[in-house]
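## tool: complex_structure
## caller: assistant
## args:
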Amino acid sequence: MKLDRRFLLRGTCQGAAAAMALPFLDCFLDTNGQALAATGERVPTRFNTFFYGLGLTKSLWVPKTAGLNYETTIQLKPLEAFKKKMNVFSGSRVMIDDNPNFQHWSGVGASATGISPSKTGLFDSKTIDQTVADVISRGSRFKSIAAACAGDPKQSYSSLGGANNLPAEASPLSLYTRLFGPGFQDPSRGDWKPDPQIMLQQSVLSVVAEDRKRVTQNFGASDKARLDQYFTSVREAEQQMAAELKRPDIEAKVTIPTAPDEMVVNSALPNMRLVLPLMARLGALAMATDQTRVFNLSISEPGSQMFVPGDPLGYHQSTHEEPLDPILAYQPRVARYNVYSMELFAAFLTELDSIPEGDGTLLDHSLVYGFTDVAFAKIHALDGIPVLLAGGASGRMKTGHHIVGDGNPVSRVGLTVQKAMGLSVDSWGGGSMETKSPYTELLA
Amino acid sequence: MHKRVLVAVLTVFVLAGMSQVPASSASGEVVSMRRLTEQEYRNSIADIFGKDIAVQGVFEPGKRIGGLVAASAAILSVTPVGFDSYSKMADSIAVQVTSEKARGRLVSCKPASAAQPDDACSAQVFGHYGLMLFRRPLTGDELQSRVKLAANMTKASGDFYTGLRYGLASLLQSSNFLFRIEVAVPGSGKDYRLDAYSRASRLSYLMWDTTPDAELLKAAQSNELGSPAGLAGQVDRLMASPRLDTGMRAFFSDMLQLDTFDNVSKDALLYPKWSVQLAAAAREETLRTTIDLALHDNGDIRELMTTPKTYINRNLAAIYGVPFNFDEEWVPLDFAPGQGRSGIVTQISMLSMFSHPGRSSPTERGVALMDIFLCEPTPTPPNNVDFSIVNNTDGPLKTVRERLMAHATNAICASCHTHSDPIGLSLEGFDTIGRHRGTENGQAIDVSATIQGKSFVGAQGLGRFLHDNPKYPACVARKLYSYAKGVDSQDVEPKDFKVAYKAFSDSGYRMRSLLKGMAESEDFFHAVPPVAAAKSTKLASQ
Amino acid sequence: MILRKRLLAFSSAMAVMACLPHPAAAAPWVRSFVVGTYEYAFRYGGRAGYSRPGEIEPGSDCIHGSTIHFSNGEQIRRALKFQSWRSPEEIHTVSTLPDLEQAKTPDQARFMIWDRAMSYRGWRHGIETYINPFAAQDPGQPQVVSRIGDGFNLDGKIGVNDFVSPDGEKGVDNALYRAWGCDAPWRGNGNATLDLRSNDKMQEGLYTMVIRISGNQDPMNDKDATLEIGYSPDKIVKDARGQVATDFSYRIVKTAQYTKMKAKVANGVVESEQVAELHAPRIAWFYDHAGDANFHQGKIRLVIDAEGNAKGLIGGYRNWRDIYAQNTFAQDGGQQGVREHEDGVALYYALKRNADGMRDARTGQNMGISTAYRITAASAYVVDAKKPAEITILTLEEKRREAYLRIVANMIKATTTRIVQDVTPGTSEGAYPNMERAIVGMPSADYFLKTLDRPHFDDDVQEAQASK
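## result:
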């Protein structure tokens, strides 16, 4: 039964008219805080992660001003086109507590789980993309997808915890086959299936809603209005579930390309520059056609092995071997590699932003969580580990900010991300990094 | 099978109806509907299902009214966003309770077949948990609808415990659980009194910040709470328990506005020692010292203003400027005489919560302390105020005091500022994170103050002033009363809590006497029926 | 002057004590500190902001700048030429790595191949070089040529190789500076790589070093003060600006790295007595090589500033083989070499050559070298623990510590007896199995496996750490 939205609004607000002074009456918005699309259906919000090893160079990437309208620094320049759709976080801290600082690993674990890992190479809990996928992936074909531009299926930072990493697709062809090969679900065809869980939950809600009829006591006017509001909320939840039983309104104005050729996929920068846009495009198309709502892209292992052909000293070794230039006070060659990583990130965002969807683009309806393994690779320092976010999470996240961490745990960013994705969480992380405080200034 | 259960439930009803105060009434007046706070929700779930059950979710915030967030529970409802969270939590809790690991402990009966409905068993489970969750027995109808839901879900899934889960979830997201619905019935004469189960709830959430335990529910059912002796017995039992600490922590947390810490931030460049851990420690320090004095030592509440005793952990020691001896995580400390600290108003919490990120604020501190301890809130400033003089640290007026004194010359400003600034000015010997200081911008700080005709110097003078001020204990009593009843403390008349206050002052201002006097007073369960009580204003069906 | 200083100290928020003693009257006093930075007291003589092609910051201390080894194929080739048992083909292949880019991880492959090659430079095949440095030819470590250096006059004499301190004190014994002052990872203008690294790890919680000074007269002038130094089980607290926070409390524990000494304070400068053995924590950047820096004829000097923070020196003679071990086996000698551009063999010979103390009566050799370390410390409260307190043991990391101690023992045995010792299991010394893993995909992998093979040991090498 499709409800007339206008009727509902009228009914609700009149019902609460006696208590207009009450706060939190957000009867004009749906549960995502976003106006419903014209058809009354919702476009799902997607979640992406982007991993790049070896961090950035502090003196070249951290803007001097905090908040909105921060200056574009050299290392953020490749991302300038997306500045208004991004938030950057400097000065975040990783508290390792009684664990060793596992080189190139502690930062990864902390960024992806909010917990300082107790063993190298293992996550101490589910990673953030899985926590989000648990909630948002209901109904999509794949719960999540991971892809590795450097060609190694082990380069996946998507995990159920411990060593249970979900392997990454290691070439554009294998990613294509997975997504658009056999089993591809064309959303415009009739074979979409809703989540059976939803129908069960609907029965629970109708029992709860029926309690209303059983109220026998007398209520005063204001308490009556409050109880009305409670039951209205129950009603809203029922309707939201009804909506979820319908196929999502994804008018994917996209064409699925033909399969890519076999290509060399490795850590050589020229190859990565060809592979990444291809993988990013495939991931974006997959999300546009609801094959998945969670896409994880990585360009390296922690301690990135990226190299420029002809130069035997690759990225990782450069971070350790290259001295700090006495005049510049940073490592120039490492700084160039940092920028290559940011260029690849920009290429990923370009693909997400080039798919129009509803009143914006796929990027506007996504959140991209860009994280790394260290703050200063040369000495494996974690203090100031950068996090870069992109996308507006369908309006739930305010963008354009530079947030200065002041030594706050990096888990605050992950908590903010989960809240923007609509998860019902009050805390995230573990040990000294357990936090209940998101960056509320970013939550719409 | 379920007919027997129905009969049993009805019997309880009939029995209840026979006593002086009905245990729960199908036809009473709802005098108050108080949304569970986050802590009450968590404590209730932990007490009903055990501490192993994880509760993860977002709770809608309350609003401070008359100085207490508890008062807003009686005004706020549940928004769609909030309900979404409750719904998910309800399901999550139900899943855990009926899980293979927990069902042995938490589900009291076994079904005849694990793949078929078993109405007798589910009725037993829902009856048991329904009583505890709704804080009164389920009506026949309420119970039946859950049994039927469980049966249907069992058929759909082929698993009895899955059916149980959905039934339990429907109880957990019901308005009868999420709201403390206080029902009143007419007593002898025309005045209304809370029914027995409502009394049990009110007592339990006040004393222990949680749902009534089995013994209290039994006392409600047998109408023990209707007689003064029975009531006193339960009150004494509740107060003798160490769980009284939990209840009073919740009260003082509210009264002392410690949730302000959720929004406090300090300038990292000027005050790099400030951290989230420090804020949490400061919060705990204040609660510990207050509970220690008020409950464990059964002390005079006025001494909260003058006591040199506090508790510190390693973090706090660094701000107070003292060594920490690591004996325990928390150790007692006597304020060093040289710093001029005195009681709770000079603890880091009070000094830092009501103060700017980069500078101290006598006005904010004054306004807050007047509101918290003397029940005298200050009106907001007029719209056309020019703050530039106060905020100019480079001008000729070097200290905050000097800049604030500019208000004294302007009649419009003076009316409020002379009311509250002096308190804050006497605390200027402490910076915005609560550290002691002797100078500001190179100038010595003057910490003298005059308020309501009385002059004093520094925090110790302020402590003395508040100690001797009769408005302070009166305010404590007023706030406890408002907290217990969920009403705006500004709307309460002194006569409403006269009995309680007398017990308080007669005892030398001991919290236990206040609590007991209040809970056992004639007035405590007295209720004003809602408007148009004579005609029934039943809820319109959907 | 002193009165005003004291007023300032009182009114600043960093007051260490609630009430300070009157200047003239004697009263018990305590000043405590937590160490925030701990480095070799090397003096940087490079020209600020100056660099020459091929030379890192040349200056008055090191004419050709920081020494660089193993940073390119040419330097590798030169090192390999010393081994007469290598074929020209091998030398060429190892130094030029023709098919490197076909490795799955080319960066790692280069690193590990050179690590392996540099770890076997003995006079015959199969001698692990870092455990047996005496068996390889001395490549030569350029030494510090300047005369100015920080430290203490440990032997009371003015020797020809001694330094003059910046304040003009003659006879300063810091032969370690002479020997290692041009070594790349330890040379810098506040940015020496291993200084940055070790301080970062210490501040992150690897270990905590605390100092407590007490007396009965006056904190600025006291002829009879006491100085204690040791580990604390309590982690360093950093503030929101990333500095070590002041006024935090730390317990001091009386482990083997605890020492109590007499000291004199004159105008705020604390000078300890010289003790036969000053046990104190040593610099470390991994759990496994933290431990005791046993300073023979050791001393401490600290200057306390108006805010109650301290800067100073700690020094004495240290067993130079220990110093070599702590630097070389932090991970493995080859990694230190290729990554930090230092040659452990050259550093070994430099230490031996400059050893100037702890004479062994039997052999007539100097077992120790004079050293000085620079520390900065934030004001803190250092307390004795009433309940027994211990440094946290990380069980998994303990295995590595045991492996580290085994390899060090072997190196000491080797260098004292001059009998070749083998690599002990449990570390990555000799780049095993790291090289094997890293060359996967290279057409020349088999060639390296054969040519750069080395003596194996048992399966418990599977526990060996991968490249840190």
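## assistant note: The domain at 45-187+250-442 of chain A is CATH 3.40.720.10 (Alkaline Phosphatase, subunit A). Strands of chain A lie at 46-51, 86-90, 145-148, 218-219, 294-298, 356-357, 360-361, 366-371, 387-390, 401-404. Handing back to user.
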